[in-house]
């Protein structure tokens, strides 16, 4: 079981995010403390905020009083709601939050069952719940709970395995639900600072995204269109406007998230850790596949984009350990597209190993070849030509993009 702890300042945002899952039938409330349960059993974020704030004085000695934790058992661990609720309570109690207001939410929007815990650090007297060595204490608590419930230990899992989502499978149908189950958690869990980095992240899970601009009755707008991708990188099914997945999947929320991600990455210097891993892997990597395999073993995916001449024009590294997405140039010149292109120029070009989430990287005897993949942003015209403006708001009014002439290839994780 993997625990992820986030500290923040937006209590309503944390509660509303989880309550939205409940309201959409994609989650449920397993328990709460010091929060009044409505007579009809239907919670709402506004009332819950009031209950939390009744136990939190206005004078606070921290800018981040809100604690939002996710507990993620291994996909093979099967737990009842009662067991998940008990685990959530015990985790909070042992971490020091047992006497605080809190709520336990179970999310059912993806195949892997997991719970979210929302609580606060500020006690009624204004003092704070200690967070010293919080990560180490959390790891010890997780190990205790794993032993008590005979769960698959987090240490026994591959790097980043517990956070893997299921890539979109076009043969399974229901593409809207599948795409939504990818973009929603990824936008919350991962940090990225550019649209290109976001696009590379989604490509690992067979999802494409395009930014489109237009004019509707004199009003200019910018919107996003998501699409499912097949194993060859081709778009399948009808395009899906971001408004179908809620405001948090639109341009405004995405850009605000990128701004905050940039600040967070700069503050915690997570780039240094990723850079060190990539630099070490590059020392012995003679080919792209060598580098990709070495990085995968360390919990990092590499997405390369090539033009028709086979030249690398884009490189992105996705660190599942810190859940940070970084273009190669952010790590340093030696990790940029130009540097990688020169680095591998003297060796025969290889097709990338087919990437399968939650599965070991195949050895030389079992490697498969993956066909060239179309660039995320290419051939948009034919796919989006069915889009016509509606009267439902700016984000729903998307223009027909122009068809591009050339196709480019990208390499990423495919199913």
Explain what the structure shows.
The protein is of the alpha+beta class. The protein has 2 domains: 2-157, BirA Bifunctional Protein, domain 2; 159-415, no CATH class. Helices cover 33% and strands 20% of the residues. The protein contains 12 helices and 12 strands. It has helices spanning 11-23, 45-53, 81-95, 134-149, 175-189, 195-203, 251-268, 270-284, 288-297, 328-331, 337-343, 380-384; strands at residues 2-8, 27-33, 66-72, 102-107, 114-120, 207-216, 219-229, 235-241, 300-306, 312-319, 324-327, 409-411. Strands 1-3-5-4-2 form a 5-stranded antiparallel sheet, sandwiched between helices. A 4-stranded antiparallel sheet has the order 11-10-9-12, with helices on both faces. Strands 6-7-8 form a 3-stranded antiparallel sheet. The two termini are 25 Å apart. The model is unreliable at 158-163 and 348-409 (pLDDT under 50).
**Strand-residue proportion:** 15-25%
Individual helix count = 12
Biggest sheet details: 5 strands, antiparallel
Helix content: 25-40%
How many strand segments?
A: 12
- Succession of helices and strands: EHEHEHEEHHHEEEHHHEEEHHHE
Q: Please, how many domains?
A: 2
Distance between the termini: 25 Å
Instruction: State mean pLDDT (0 to 100 scale).
Output: 80
For the largest sheet, list the strands in their spatial order. 1-3-5-4-2
Structural class: alpha+beta
Low-pLDDT segments, ≥5 res: 158-163, 348-409
Shape: globular
């Amino acid at each position: 079981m993997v625990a992820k702890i986030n500290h923040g300042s937006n209590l309503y945002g944390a509660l509303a995010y989880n309550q939205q899952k409940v309201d959409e039938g994609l989650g449920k409330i397993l328990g709460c403390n010091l929060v009044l349960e409505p007579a009809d059993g239907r919670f709402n974020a506004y009332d819950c905020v009031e209950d939390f704030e009744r136990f939190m004085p206005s004078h606070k000695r921290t800018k981040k009083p809100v604690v939002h934790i996710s507990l993620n058992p291994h996909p093979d661990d099967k737990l009842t709601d009662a067991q998940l609720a008990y685990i959530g309570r015990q985790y909070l109690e042992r971490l020091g939050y047992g006497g605080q207001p809190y709520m336990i939410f179970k999310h059912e929007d993806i195949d892997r069952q997991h719970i979210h815990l929302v609580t606060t650090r500020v006690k009624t007297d204004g003092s704070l719940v200690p967070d010293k060595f919080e990560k180490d204490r959390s790891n010890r608590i997780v190990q205790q709970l794993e032993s008590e419930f005979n769960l698959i230990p987090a240490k026994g899992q591959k790097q980043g395995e517990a956070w893997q989502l299921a890539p979109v499978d076009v043969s399974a149908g229901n593409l809207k639900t599948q795409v939504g189950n990818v973009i929603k958690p990824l936008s919350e869990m991962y940090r990225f600072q550019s649209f290109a980095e976001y696009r590379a992240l989604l490509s690992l899970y067979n999802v494409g995204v395009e930014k489109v601009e237009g004019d509707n009755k004199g009003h200019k707008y910018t919107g996003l269109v998501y699409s499912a991708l097949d194993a060859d990188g081709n778009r399948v099914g009808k395009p899906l406007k971001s408004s179908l997945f809620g405001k948090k999947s639109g341009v405004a929320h995405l850009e605000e998230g990128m701004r905050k991600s940039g600040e967070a990455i700069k503050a915690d210097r997570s780039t240094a850790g990723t850079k060190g891993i990539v630099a070490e892997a590059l020392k012995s990597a003679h080919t792209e596949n060598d580098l990709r395999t070495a990085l995968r073993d360390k919990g990092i995916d590499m997405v390369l984009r090539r033009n028709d001449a086979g030249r690398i024009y884009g490189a992105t590294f996705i660190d599942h350990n810190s859940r940070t997405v970084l273009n190669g140039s952010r790590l340093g010149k030696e990790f940029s597209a130009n540097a990688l292109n020169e680095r591998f120029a003297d060796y025969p070009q290889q097709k990338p190993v087919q990437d399968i989430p939650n599965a070991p990287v195949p050895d030389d005897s079992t490697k498969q070849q993956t066909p060239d993949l179309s660039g995320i942003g290419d051939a948009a015209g034919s796919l989006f030509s069915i889009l016509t403006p509606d009267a439902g708001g700016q984000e729903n009014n998307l223009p027909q993009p122009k068809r591009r002439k050339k196709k480019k290839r990208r390499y990423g994780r495919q199913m």
